Amino acid sequence: MSKKRFVYAYPRPAVTADAVIVTREPKPRVLLIRRKHAPFAGKWALPGGFMNMDETLEAAARRELLEETGVRAEKLEQLQAFDEPDRDPRDRIITVAFLGRIDPDEVTPEAADDAAETAWFPLDRLPPLAFDHKWILRLARERLKGQRTLKRSRKRA
User: Fold this and answer.
1) pTM of this structure
2) Does domain 14-156 have CATH number 3.90.79.10?
3) Structural contact between residues 47 and 19, judged by C-beta atoms closer than 8 angstroms
4) Of 53, 60, 56, 73, nearest to 18 (Cα)?
């Protein structure tokens, strides 16, 4: 028995996953890649890419992070979906960003696949970024500030 295939006459968006990997340091840094291909070839971006049909969003974020940087993240939390219609010049693409914390002394990022280079950047001093990654990182900073505030208030309680 063959699997029934549905084809719809209306356009559908593509889905990507991005990994926001931030160091556990007093002055946190974020791992970025320099894009090898268009669009935005040569620009800095978050590690990420298209989700395969047989994987979850989190699995896609982990796979892309590993493929582009050689880094494995222990824990990722879903940050948010980003769906502005013009966020990617290639097509109508929705991305879901995942946030992970890492000890930078325990990893050695190496560029591979779609990445020409990898580097750590201070979270408060970013280079010009591809796509809407500036907005994704702004939200990540806010989430991390909230976590620090929450941790401090727990200590006082």
Assistant:
1) 0.89
2) yes
3) yes
4) 60
